[in-house]
């Protein structure tokens, strides 16, 4: 009789512990997916900001339109849990700022906003200013 009670107590303990373990595993999996998508959006924003900074001969409006077209396809197919991803691009004479915003319904609705900024390169102006400094120094 005593051995039979022990077997039954194990079943009761397992039935109480198993839902808790499943909840922990599900939460861990959701957080892993969320962090993966956050990393993907961060790298996509950095890549786009770098591409925009390297474009020398486009004005701000043309560059913004071109980057918007690039941004729509860059993150597509790489995200695992985020939906409703929006892209915001701001280009000035000196900087390119790219930000991604997304949300998911997992774990009560998580949102993410990743933003990266790069300084626009203008080698022509660098050379001109270097030549001016040389001329002033003589």
Mean pLDDT: 85
* Helix content bin: 55-70%
Figure out the total of helices. 3
Distance between the termini: 105 Å
- Major sheet strand order: 1-2-3
Poorly predicted runs are: none
Strand-residue fraction? 15-25%
Task: Please report the first level of CATH classification, the CATH class.
Answer: Alpha Beta
Alpha-beta content class? alpha+beta
Second CATH tier, the architecture: Roll
**Global outline:** elongated
CATH topology: Nuclear Transport Factor 2, Chain: A
Main traits of this protein?
single chain; alpha+beta; Nuclear Transport Factor 2, Chain: A; 3 helices; 3 strands; elongated
Summary, kept brief:
By secondary structure, the protein is an alpha+beta fold.
Descriptive overview:
The structure is a single chain. The chain has 138 residues and is of the alpha+beta class. The chain contains 3 helices and 3 strands, in the order ααβββα. The chain has a 3-stranded antiparallel β-sheet. Strand 1 and strand 2 (95-104) form a beta hairpin. Helix 1 packs antiparallel against helix 2 (60-74). The radius of gyration is 26 Å and the shape is elongated. The mean pLDDT is 85.
Topology (SSEs and partners):
Elements (H helix, E strand, L loop, with lengths): L1 H53 L5 H15 L8 E9 L3 E10 L5 E10 L3 H15 L1
Antiparallel strand pairs: 1-2, 2-3
Helix pairs in contact: 1-2
């Amino acid at each position: 009789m005593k051995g039979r009670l022990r077997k039954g107590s194990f079943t009761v303990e397992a039935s109480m512990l198993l839902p808790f373990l499943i909840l922990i595993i599900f939460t861990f999996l959701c957080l892993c997916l969320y962090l993966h998508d956050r990393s993907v959006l961060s790298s996509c924003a950095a890549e786009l900001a770098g591409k925009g900074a390297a474009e020398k001969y486009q004005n701000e409006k043309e560059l913004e339109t071109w980057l918007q077209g690039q941004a729509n396809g860059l993150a597509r197919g790489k995200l695992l849990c985020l939906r409703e991803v929006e892209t915001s691009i701001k280009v000035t004479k000196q900087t390119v700022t790219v930000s991604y915003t997304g949300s998911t319904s997992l774990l009560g609705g998580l949102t993410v906003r990743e933003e990266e900024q790069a300084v626009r390169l203008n080698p022509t102006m660098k050379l001109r200013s270097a030549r001016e400094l040389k001329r002033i120094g003589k």
